[in-house]
Design a protein that fits this description.
37% helix; eight-stranded parallel beta barrel; alpha/beta; 17 helices; TIM Barrel; M1 Pyruvate Kinase, Domain 3; 3 domains
Length: 477
């Protein structure tokens, strides 16, 4: 069958490590999407990074979507002059920033969240840095919390903090998020990732704000809170896609539950015909080392075999010592895993049957994928005005590569997150005959189509109207 082809998409997080020399250019030759983490960096630096990504993507002729990942109501340690060494058994304090640093303690960490001083109670366990550090609260006052270290380690500035069992009603979008949403709309990022989604109304609130600001960005919901698992079905209904945010899932529910929850979330997303990204610690050792561990390679491969569309790097690419190598290794592992996905005839999930019977577009997508398998088509070409048909075909297709034909560059960028899908930008034409001829020429020119190649096409009549896919066509070169 020729060379192995990677279908799983690679998302990398921007950060200072990628801005050295030609690292970003080299990484963008491989990565399919870029995440900007709104929890770090200032707007000016963020804008410069975004501009650089777009300029390099244009130069490399690649459709690279940029995701702005909102911080959400996540609590973080404040700024530190140097990392703190939290030694097992030591007692220190969390203090409200603004005054003098408390003295006479083994350590003192600023905590810029007044609600935590109110909600803290003696005996509570607090997990820091994605659970790497555990402390127990000993006593409280309005601006000082005393704690004992149970599991120690180095604590750096701006690391996350999660109080276990603290019940505080919080708005899903903070004041900082509102500022970042406006920035994202003004700078035309391609998608927003929403942190700590608990229910569908959280996503709808963000979507309403985006639309009010004049934006049209889609939302990826990060599944990292126990309530989100309970409401996963309704969240999937209103989201463009979801992210398995394994760091906070592990903190909230225990590391031992993460593998099972990952499978559950990916399966639910697939059944809902929505894309899914698996994130956190994919190649964590590469923050310091030049190649991943065998366990990390197995972890990435298993996420792919679970059915994820994309795998994501965080600190590995943002602040690690080997950001380009991390991207390249992730791609190598994904390529090998994709080659070992057991190809199977497409079958109907019971919970898709009702949708297939009720919706013409899903029925056409299914028929196209099944036909492509049976006639050994070289490609499935999905004409997509808003990206929905490409998403369906991506989910239902077996081993046939998919080309998403669209006139919209923004929609083309979204294909960077759909498994097995490559964007095909085409001009807007007046008839289906012209459209077929445009595709024929592009496949010969850019994709090496040869005589007797067969392709299966899906399209909607009338043309250029979202959600009207009702036609399947087989073409032989």
């Amino acid at each position: 069958m020729g060379d192995k082809v990677r279908k799983t998409k690679i998302v990398m997080t921007m950060g200072p490590a990628l801005l050295q020399g030609d690292r970003l250019r080299e990484a963008l030759k491989v990565a399919d999407a870029v995440r900007i983490n709104a929890s770090h960096g200032d707007p000016a630096a963020r804008a410069e990074s975004l501009q650089t990504v777009r300029a390099l993507a244009l130069e490399l002729d690649r459709c690279i979507p940029v995701i702005l990942d909102l911080q959400g109501p996540k609590w973080r340690i404040g700024l530190l002059e140097a990392p703190l060494d939290l030694v097992d058994g030591s007692e220190g304090v969390f203090y409200a920033p603004g005054g003098a640093i408390p003295t006479g303690h083994a350590w003192a960490a600023p905590l810029p969240h007044p609600e935590l001083f109110e909600g803290a109670e003696p005996g509570q366990l607090w997990l820091l840095d994605d659970g790497a550090i555990t402390v127990r609260i000993l006593s409280k006052s309005p601006e000082l919390l005393k704690a004992r270290v149970l599991i120690g380690g180095p604590l750096k500035a701006r690391k996350g903090l999660r109080p276990i069992g603290m019940d505080i009603a919080v708005d899903p979008l903070t004041d900082k998020d509102h500022i970042d949403i406006r920035w994202g709309v003004e700078h035309q990022v391609d998608l927003f990732a929403q942190s700590f989604v608990r229910r569908a109304s959280d996503v709808q609130q963000l979507q309403a704000i985006i639309h009010h600001l004049g934006g049209h960005q889609h939302i990826i919901s990060k599944i990292e809170h126990p309530t989100a698992l309970t409401n996963l079905g309704e969240i999937l209904e209103v989201s463009w896609g979801v992210m398995v945010a394994r760091g906070d899932l592990g903190v909230e529910l225990g590391v031992e539950r993460v593998p099972g929850l990952q499978k559950q979330i990916i399966q639910a997303a697939r059944r809902a015909l929505k894309p899914v990204i698996t994130a956190t610690q994919m190649l964590e050792s590469m923050i310091e080392h030049a190649q991943p561990t065998r366990a990390e390679a197995s972890d990435v491969a298993n996420a792919i075999w679970d059915g994820t569309d994309a795998v994501m790097l965080s600190a590995e690419s943002a602040s690690g010592l080997h950001p380009v190598e991390a991207v390249q290794w992730l791609a190598r592992i994904a390529t090998e895993a994709d080659a070992n996905v057991k190809q199977r005839t497409i079958t109907l999930h019971e919970d898709l049957t009702e949708k297939l019977l009720a919706r013409t577009d899903i029925s056409v997508a299914f028929a196209a994928c099944r036909t492509a398998e049976e006639i050994h088509a070289r490609w499935i070409v999905a004409f997509t005005e808003g990206g929905g048909m490409a998403r369906m075909v991506s989910r239902l297709a077996g081993g046939t590569p998919i080309l998403a034909a669209t006139v919209d560059e923004q929609i083309a960028k979204l294909m960077g997150l759909l498994r097995g899908v490559t964007a095909l930008l085409i001009p807007r034409v007046a008839s289906t005959d012209e459209m077929v001829e445009v595709v024929r020429s592009l496949l010969i020119e850019k994709h090496g189509a040869v005589t007797r190649d067969r392709i299966v096409m899906t399209m909607g009549l009338p043309l250029w109207k979202t959600g009207t896919t009702n036609t399947m066509k087989v073409m032989t070169f």
